[in-house]
Design goal:
The chain is of the alpha+beta class. It contains three helices and five strands, in the order H-E-E-E-H-E-E-H. Strand 1 and strand 2 form a beta hairpin. It is globular. The model has no long low-confidence stretch (mean pLDDT about 90).
């Protein structure tokens, strides 16, 4: 597969993940930024954080600001299941094209401006000795975002 076709398919999958993440909050006009954390190192892992009214909220806490948001466990399961299916497509795309699968993908997207920033990481991130897992890595990034490192340049 040519590089352009590969990139088109990859970014189509990323767009699908962003769309699912945006639909989860009922495409609220209050969403300033959607930050998506994906890990492919061990198993497919996904989490999302939203910037709303200049503050960051994890997906299970968006109802603090978005009163109509359905943050039920069932709705979160549907979101994660749907996104994990797309992450599987991303993994397969890399494998089928004989490319190294990234260990991590971080996406920052502004529905307001349409701008995005996607960062791929290929380094080993997990540490068996320290028992650092996907939740820890996602939480670490979310803390960085809350500290002011979450805008699109």
């Amino acid at each position: 597969m040519e590089k352009i076709e590969f990139d088109d398919k990859l970014f189509s999958n990323i767009k699908d993940i962003l769309q699912l993440s945006y639909e989860y909050v009922d495409t609220s006009s209050l969403i300033e930024i959607i930050c998506v954390y994906i890990s492919l190192e061990w198993v497919n892992f996904y989490d999302v954080i939203y910037k709303i009214e200049n503050k960051f909220y994890e997906r299970h806490k968006v109802d603090v600001v978005l009163k109509n948001a359905d943050i039920s466990i069932e709705n979160q399961r549907i979101l994660v299941r749907s996104v994990n299916e797309v992450i599987g497509n991303i993994r397969e795309l890399f494998i089928q094209n004989h490319r190294e699968v990234p260990t991590q993908i971080k996406i920052i997207y502004s529905p307001v401006t349409g701008k995005n920033k996607v960062k791929f990481n290929y380094e080993k991130l997990h540490n068996d000795e320290l028992l650092i897992g996907d939740n820890d890595l996602a939480e670490e990034w979310f803390e960085e975002l809350q500290a002011g490192n979450g805008d699109i340049e």
